[in-house]
Amino acid sequence: MMDKLRDNALSLLARREHSRLELKRKLQSGIDAHDLAQLLHALATEGLQSDDRFAENFVRSRRENGYGPLRIDQELKERGINNALIQKYLSLDVEDWQPLLQQAWQKKYHSSVPKNQKERARQVRFLLSRGFPQQWVMKFLSAL
Q1: Which domains are assigned to the chain?
Q2: What is the Cα–Cα distance from 119 to 115, expressed in whole angstroms?
Q3: What is the pLDDT of residues 43-102, one digit of tens each?
């Protein structure tokens, strides 16, 4: 039973990095909680599963896809990543994120400056939904 559970875990980890919580959720059905905890501990000890590595890859991937720090922070928390790891990989320095905010806006709106309040509100909502702080969004759109 433990061999099959381990094989399932390794199969998941071979596809992509998983946080410990994600693995637990995917493997827990019909499994003894103690056995699952032992397996997760063994995988982490062997370096096969790492929340640190997961957080680093997740932040890089989400940044490349145009997501802001607030959304990435929330998604990491949902996956069981602790605040220390989140802070390690997720800078909240506006200079780090300004080019990404601009890229996300350009990709969606093709550098089309909002012509009226309704259009501006739509652009604000889009950037906020991507996870950029409101003050950054307002400052960016005001500078257009």
Answers
A1: 2-49 (1.10.10.10), 53-142 (no CATH)
A2: 6
A3: 999 999 999 999 999 999 999 999 999 999 999 999 999 999 999 999 888 899 999 999
